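Project standup — Tuesday

K.O.: blocked on the structure for the chain from last sprint. Re-posting the sequence here as requested.
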Amino acid sequence: MKKKVLCAGIPGLALLVGGVLVVRLGLLPVNADASPSSLEMRLFPMALRAAVARQAKQIQSRSVHDEDAEAGKEIYAALCADCHGRLDGRSGALGISMYPPAPQFPGHARSYTGPELFWLIKHGIRNTGMPAWRNRLADQDIWNLAAFLENLPDRGPAESH
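H.V.: unblocked you, prediction finished:
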């Protein structure tokens, strides 16, 4: 029994030590202009989705009114469009230059609920360029912005005719 534990523990320890060495020696690429590994491309979205869903569970959903979404549209145009795409369908120049690229919302389906959008906007996403807006926007403004994002059409302006 001890031999089995030892046989299983040694490779695990070697993997852990190897991982620490890779990190400490700076062998992981951190430049934003290089393509990420397939492992990173699979793990980051999975971790982000799980973390947002868990954190947003404690947020009560709100009913959305047209005036909320209209107020959110103004906030989006002023604070979000440069990264997440303009309302005329053009990509946000800053957002497509980031790693990971900022999601371009106008014309693309979103997969987050209202409470999840509220949490994302309020708290931001570490190491992505997405700031936490909790110190700049009131909760009502954040809800208005979430309402606007929830009600964006899935097609861009040119496609919706």
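K.O.: great, moving the ticket to review. Confidence is low (pLDDT under 50) at residues 155-161. The chain has five helices and no strands.
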